[in-house]
Amino acid sequence: MNTKKKMKIGKKIVISFVSFLLIIICTFLIYTSNYYHADDIAIKEASIDGDIDISNIKGALMFDPGNADTAMVFYPGGKVEYTAYEPLMVKIAQKGILCILPKMPFNLAVFDINAADKYISGNAKILHWYIGGHSLGGSMAASYVSKNSGKVEGLILMASYSTADISSSSMRVLSMYGSKDGVLNKEAYQKNKRNLPLNFTEIVVEGGNHAGFGCYGPQQGDGKADISYEKQQTYTAQVVAEFCHTANFKR
């Protein structure tokens, strides 16, 4: 094979590779550009309701009730704008828990599983750390816990499950989901219960659905809730607060 033919073949290989790479990038950008947007009205109402200091820190929103010694880092659901969880964070903060809501790259927590590190290491005043998340965010929070169990006391899953095995840890785990949830894979949820400690706490929010933990409108494939998102989030906040403030929490 002469040099010219080798160059032509090499050029074709490079062009094919670049074309394939461009297709992958374009497909990814199209996929991530289609996401659930936060309900601005609900967020505005939440920011007015209650005496909670909301500020921006290190690529996240912090909801500070003042003088809190307990905090939760919360990972948003996949392809959901992180601000959609502001109303829930406000309600939890009103129960005396400092909440940190990170903005995830491309609205996918899988791209920043260790996001909690920067907030836990930089806040010495907090004595009790928890990490939680909704849907995909919950699974990524569980993945973080599996490698950082010494940094947090508990894991809070909302319409989610852990694919990482933390069954042998002393981690306190709270798992919540709505009875009308049409998005959560119930088969996978039941199967992955074995990855949690035996004494984990499971709460079913009667009448609640998948999207009700946030404020981003109806989610494709979800069931119709029998309760408002305000009621679902108010109840969720109460359960989370009791779980975080009570070492032997059971309901």
How would you characterize the overall build of this protein?
The mean pLDDT is 89. This protein has two domains: 1-34; 37-245, Rossmann fold. The protein is 35% helix and 18% strand. It starts with a helix and ends in a 6-residue tail after the last helix. An eight-stranded mixed beta sheet has the order 1-2-4-3-5-6-7-8, sandwiched between helices. It is built from seven helices and eight strands. Helix 6 links the parallel strand 7 (172-178) and strand 8 (201-205). The chain is an alpha/beta fold and 251 residues long.
How many domains? 2
Mean pLDDT: 89
First-to-last CA distance: 76 Å
* Broad shape: globular
Strand content: 15-25%
- Number of helices in the DSSP assignment: 7
Order of helices and strands: HHEEEHEHEHEEHEH
CATH superfamily of the largest domain: Alpha/Beta hydrolase fold, catalytic domain
Low-confidence stretches: none
User: What share of the residues lie within helices?
Assistant: 25-40%
According to CATH, what is the topology of the largest domain? Rossmann fold
Strand order of the largest sheet: 1-2-4-3-5-6-7-8
**DSSP strand count:** 8
Structural class of the helix and strand makeup? alpha/beta
CATH class of the largest domain: Alpha Beta
Radius of gyration from the alpha-carbon trace, in angstroms: 21 Å
Specify the CATH architecture of the largest domain.
3-Layer(aba) Sandwich
What summary fits the major beta sheet? 8 strands, mixed
